[in-house]
């Protein structure tokens, strides 16, 4: 592995050459939840990462305490970033997890720098910061405390129910700065979930997170991503999902169609061959031009979801108390199969 060249996806994250080879400690844990998973503990040199200027991402600064993700979503665009470590972008991405063990102390130090201007910090932009590893390493409490103590605005995008462990900290932070939380739920079809997002909490449990956050007075948006063509895009599927999102008390719902960048594309196509071989050709045509579905398709999905959202009462009125729900910056592009496709980004 090229530990001396631990670059994030340059389209997502500007960090590079973070670690020296001597900084790596490799561990496994003999518990059912981590069976088959290897952790590579490293001490990062920097944790506040500037998104390259050319990026179309709507945030400038990110914090990513992990690399790789045991949530194992087949379509995950961050898979490609594992190749920068000479790690496998398929199963390796799901099971070889890099942990930046000094992330909290490093962030606190960097936030204290006179050069730091207090810009918004986005988390969950590359991989999920509330993936299972966080249950053991507990990096997020220290990160949230540092952000809270500096009254530094931030957002979190996650599929992890573990975020509720940090509810008090989120509440404390929201009292002093802008905090945006978004949960990713692309569909509520449990059959589809089991095969395409095998390591994640179920969509129902993620919506419970939305509900719990709403009950705690912390507005939470839902990134409805990815909407998966031919598998999760039937009108009744869209309706079921938006209805459930509304019932959970989400402040917004933002649909984003699946995109398939290199790394994710090969893995997703192999999955299609196994689970839905009859769709392989349709996908080849749908994504013939590249990573994105055709614009007409994206617009159609966006319109359908917007109409359903209006019908179920999710919209601007519900987001009026924006102090707690600045989700526009959080979910527009993240690890959850969401692409920075401008036509998709209109918030309701
Ligand atoms: S899409 Fe998000 S939750 Fe799923 S594997 Fe990627 S980083 Fe993890």
From TrEMBL:
GO MF annotation: an example = metal ion binding
Domain (Radical SAM core) ranges: 55-303
What Pfam families has UniProt attached to this entry?
Answer: Radical_SAM (PF04055)
SUPFAM superfamilies with a match to the protein in the record: Radical SAM enzymes
Residue numbers spanned by region Disordered: 316-348
Q: Does the keyword Metal-binding apply?
A: yes
Q: Which UniProt keywords apply?
A: Iron, Iron-sulfur, Metal-binding
Which residues lie in Basic and acidic residues bias regions? Answer: 321-332
Official protein name in the record? Rv2578c family radical SAM protein
